[in-house]
Design brief:
- By secondary structure, the protein is mainly alpha-helical.
- The protein folds into four domains: 19-29 and 39-125, 2-Layer Sandwich (Double Stranded RNA Binding Domain); 155-206, Classic Zinc Finger (Double Stranded RNA Binding Domain, 2-Layer Sandwich), CATH 3.30.160.60; 213-267, Classic Zinc Finger (Double Stranded RNA Binding Domain), CATH 3.30.160; 270-302, no CATH class.
- Helices cover 44% and strands 11% of the residues.
- The chain is built from eleven helices and 16 strands.
- The chain has helices at 19-34, 55-66, 83-94, 111-122, 139-150, 167-178, 195-206, 223-235, 252-263, 278-284, 287-298; strands spanning 43-44, 51-52, 71-72, 79-80, 99-100, 107-108, 127-128, 135-136, 155-156, 163-164, 183-184, 191-192, 211-212, 219-220, 240-241, 248-249.
- The strands form eight sheets. It has a two-stranded antiparallel ribbon. A two-stranded antiparallel ribbon has the order 3-4. The chain has a two-stranded antiparallel ribbon with strand order 5-6.
- The model is unreliable at 1-20, 32-37, 270-291 and 297-302 (pLDDT under 50).
- Residues 43-70, 71-98, 99-126, 127-154, 155-182, 183-210, 211-239, 240-267 form the C2H2-type domain.
- This is Zinc finger protein OZF-like.
- It is found in: Nucleus.
């Protein structure tokens, strides 16, 4: 049994909201500031009290209360309350990032994210978590980060009921039910549920191994799985322990196999497949069982 597929690239989830989530947070911020700027010809939202200069802005604002989203993406069907938000979303399909930082060269798909990024260079208007002291570049990022402390998970999967603190995580999760794989490898055509997993997959073709072991210099494609497991060879760390006997292991897959010793479950079932499978069993079976399988079914002469 192999380890569950790990997260491939750690995204800055506390700082990156989906366009819809960010839009809602921005609407809330604008509403609060507008309540203090009431003029003669101003129009007031009867739901939250926000004030607007014209009917159009009021109409767009009221969609955050009604849930109306009249603008949809022709590629994936995602819906939005504003045309500007739809235009920003379309860049996620094209990969377009027209706004770049003059200091470090990092590129962004929208000006708002560039502005938030620039604060990290200037050290201005940063947002600090009062609980753990973490510094974030935007108020929306702070809102999302606070959910790690409060445990709030406002996004629920309609299929299985699983809850998430970030809208983007729910979107990725729903693809496990729909089998949607919107990101494809240009080299081999394989599809993936997220862009981050696609980027890691591309390293198979490019040979890129950005994570290096400081002890032996060996390179790895992913930090969260291959690299982390490898370092335990040097450190001796065994983070997974058996609740029955206390024996410790470096991998969850090894622990799961060990647990079968307590349950009495046969750890391996060997049925002859349609073709010789000794190569497969060389990978997944202990050497003693592999030898028995090869001698019994593959007529392999040692």
């Amino acid at each position: 049994m192999s380890d569950p597929e790990p997260p491939q690239i750690k995204e800055e989830k506390e700082e990156l909201c989906t366009s819809q989530e960010g839009e809602q947070l921005e609407n809330d911020r604008r509403s609060k500031s507008r309540k203090t700027r009431t003029g003669k010809n101003s129009l007031k939202c009867h739901t939250c009290g926000a004030v607007f200069k014209n009917k159009y802005n009021l109409k767009v604002h009221q969609r955050c209360h009604t849930g109306e989203k009249p603008y949809s993406c022709s590629t994936c069907g995602k819906k939005f309350t504003r045309t500007s938000t739809l235009k920003d979303h379309l860049k996620t399909h094209t990969g377009e990032k027209p706004y770049s930082c003059d200091t470090c060269g990092r590129k962004f798909s929208r000006t708002s994210r560039l502005k938030d990024h620039l604060k990290s260079h200037r050290g201005e208007n940063l947002y600090f978590c009062k609980i753990c002291g973490k510094c974030l570049r935007s108020s929306s990022g702070l809102v999302v980060h606070m959910r790690t402390h409060t445990g709030e998970k406002p996004y629920t999967c309609n299929t299985c009921g699983k809850k998430f603190s970030i809208k983007a995580d729910l979107t990725k999760h729903t693809r496990t039910h729909t089998d949607e794989k919107p990101y494809s490898c240009e080299e081999c055509g394989k599809g993936f549920t997220t862009r981050s997993i696609l980027l890691v997959h591309m390293r198979i073709h490019t040979g890129e191994k950005p994570y290096f072991c400081a002890t032996c210099g060996k390179g790895f494609r992913t930090c969260s799985s291959d690299f982390s497991r490898h370092t335990r060879i040097h450190t001796g760390e065994k983070p997974y322990s058996c609740s029955t006997c206390g024996k410790q292991f470096t991998r969850t897959s090894t622990l799961n196999d060990h647990l079968k010793n307590h349950t009495g479950e046969e750890p391996y079932s060997c049925e002859k497949p349609l073709k010789c499978c000794c190569v497969i069993y060389m990978v997944i079976l202990p050497s003693s069982l592999c030898l028995e399988h090869v001698l019994s079914f593959c007529n392999f002469v040692i």
